[in-house]
Structures are given as C-alpha cells and as structure tokens.
Structure prediction request, 493 residues.
Amino acid sequence: MKTVTLCLAFIGLSLLTACQSTSKPTTTKNAEANQQTQYFAEAKVLLDKLKEDINQGKDDQLAYFSPGTFKIAVGEFENATEEYLDISQNGASSFNVFKSDSEQYSESKEEILNSISVSNQKLKLAYKIKVSAESTLAETFIQNTVLKDISAPEVFPRDYEKIYTRINDLIEYIDEGELSEAQAKQPALLRDMQILEVRTVRKKALGQLDSDIALIKEKNWAEFVPVSHQQLLTARNKADAIITATPRSTDEIKVAVVLAEFSLAHFYHLSKEVNALKGIEINSYEQYLLVKEDLLHTVTESLKMGDVRDLAMTQQVETIALQAGTIQDKLTTANATVLALQNDSTESSEATQSLRVEFKNQLVNLNEKYDALVIENSVLNKQIQNKDMELVRLQAYKSTAIKAKNQRVAEKKLAMQEQAKKEAEQKALAMQEQAKKEAEQKALALQEQAKKEAEQKALAQQDQLTESQVVEPIIQTETTETTETLVEELVEE
Prediction:
C-alpha cells in the first residue's frame, strides 16, 4: 500500500514538474515522467530489500563479527536512501542543482544503484568474515560462553572486561584480513580465560569458606582443636584441587565443597565444646558427663531399648548403633515386602499383558534376525567357496613354482659340475705340460753336467798319455762307452 501511495506521489510530482517546464513538448514530458516513476518504483524495491538485509545483518551480529565491513555496508545504504529521498521529495538532487532534471535523475539513479551494489557486496563479505571468525575463534567463543554462564563478568568485572576487549581485538584482526595475527594471539587468550574460569568457580564455591578460615586464623581459634582445624584445611584443599583440575565438574565440586563445609561446622561445634570445658571447674566434671549421658539415654528410650547407663559411655554408643542397625534392616525388608505385594496386586494383569507384547515383539525380532542370519550365512558360504577356489589356484601355482625352482637348482648344479670338470681337466693338462717341461729341462741339465764331467775326465786322462801310448785306444774306448752309458741313464730317468 505504501508503494502504491509513493508511486502516486511520484506521478503527481512528475506532472507538477512537467507543468513548470513549458519548453518541452507534452509527449516528451509524459515519457520522462513515466520513466522517472518507473525508476522510483524500482529503486524503492531495491532499497526495501537492502533495508531488510541490513536489519537481518544486525540480528546476525555482523556489527560484532565484522564491524568495519558492516559499517561500510550500512553507510552505503544510508547514502542511497538519502539520495533517493532527496530527489523524490525535492524533485531534483540538492547536489546537482545546475543540471537539468533528466541529467539529475540519471546521475541520481546511477549513484543510488552504485551505493546499493557496494552495500550488498560489503554485506556478503561481512557474512564471510563472520563465518571465518566463528571457525577460527570457535574455542574462544565457547570459553566466553562458559565465563558468562558462571557469572564471571559479575564476579570479576574488571578482569572479564580485559578478556572481552582482547576477544574484540581478535575479531578486528580477522575483519581487517590479519587472520594469522588472530590465530597467533588466541592461545594466550584461551589460557587467561581458563584461569579466570578457575578463579570464578573457586570464588563462588569456596569464597565464604575461605573467609571463615581466614577469620579462624585471625582469632587463633585453632589453638585448642588443631586436629579438627587440619581436617578442615585438608577438605578445603581437596575441593580447591578439584576446581583447579576440572572446573566444569560441577557434581564432583559440589560434593567436595559440602564435605569442606561439614568440616567447618564440625570445627565450630568442637571448638565451642572445648571452650566450654575450659570454663568448667574440677568439681563440675561429673555433672558435665552426666548431661552427656542423659542425652544418650534419651536416644535409648526412643529406640525402645533398656537402660544401658551401667555401661561405659563408648559401650553405650556401640549398643545404640547396633540397635539402630537392626531396626534399619527390618525397615528395609518390610519396605521391600510391601513394594512386592503392591506390584503383585495392582500391576499383575498389566505386567502380564506387557510381557506378552514384549515376548511377541521379541519373537518377531528374533525371526527377522534369523532370516538375516540365513542370508548372511549364504553370503559367507559363497565367500568361503571363492576362498577355496583361490586356495586351490594358489596351491597349484605353488607346486608349479616349486618344480621350476627345483629344476633350476638341478640345472645350476649340473652346470657347476661341468665347470668343475673342465677346470680339473685344464688344470691336469697344465700340470702335465709343466712336468714335461721340467723333465726336459732336467735332462738337458744332466746332459750338460755329464758332458762337462766327461770332458774333465778326458782332460785328466790326457795327462796319462805320455806314460802309456799303447793303452790309449783302450782308454778312449772305455771312456766313450762310459759317457754314453751315463747319458742313456740320465735320459731314462
């Protein structure tokens, strides 16, 4: 309805503008008026859509996750809106008063469309930055939620404000494109946030207890009850250790704090008793013990027991505890019996029907499971058959491979034997040749030696020729025969 009213206003404004200008033909003025009216309608649609997107961006916290980029988007939207309102209300742009109406509308349209385009681009970029920030700083945001849930901003407002400022700094780094800087600074921030979480949980869980312990120390109340005081400190430190190690273990922390508060109450009551004893005179000790014994006697009467004041006080307590345990056992048995009777009387029919339905459902489930098992068994049988075939193939392949291997080994052995035989024959031939050469050389050496000896002997016999010329032929003959005999012997050797 607003759009229709605005369009009518634009038509009237255009007609009024056309009436003021008498220099243009009527048809031209009407065409310009129609064009302007159409333009205003289109611009209005675009601006309304952009306004919705801007409002949605605010709801989506773009101003927080992408402050700089979203601010530019909003600024461009405001510029487009201002230009639109200016020309629609005044009939001309206040920035272009020296130009014609057509020129002003044209420039205004271009400026508005440009601002809308830039705003939409920045909006898309802001959403991308938000996604990046939520992904990169996911642990930080989770930790911040934890701090808010445990009321850290209220317990430690200044410390939380510093943490919150550092979170915003990381977001600005991402908005400005410095993602690595945000990633580098995040671990230190997370450590400080976890420390603040532990401090907050400790303050809320042990704050009052620590104040009471400080008061005990200040008043020196632990002087006469040191054992109870140490039990209190131990319980408090145990609770603190749990908080430090696991600050989000709510149930465990609660149990530990309750025990510490119990120890505190025990300390107070015991210290009062000790102070009371300090003020009692010696002749009043009996009366003090009688008062305590009367308290125990009240308990025995409540339990319908006999008078046990003839026993020592510790034995009185043990007797009372034994009687209380017996009564407790009887009560437990009675309650179980009553509950069983109630179940049998009020729920027997319903239970029977329920069991029937349950058994029927179980039977259906079992049948379905049986069918599934049959199918699965069939599949497994096929798989086993395939595996058996593969096993047979593998065994055949293995047998063939073994035979081939044995054949190669035998062939290799025969080749080695042939090679050894050839080498032995070559070696024997070489040795025979060597022996032959050595024998020939030895025979030649012996011949030379025999020849030398014969010559020497012949020379020695020549000296005897002068003595006997007759025997010379005989001696020469014997010498020649002897030499030949020696040579033949050496050759045979």
User: Anything to note?
Assistant: Residues 348-462 form the longest helix (115 residues). The two ends are 148 Å apart (CA to CA).
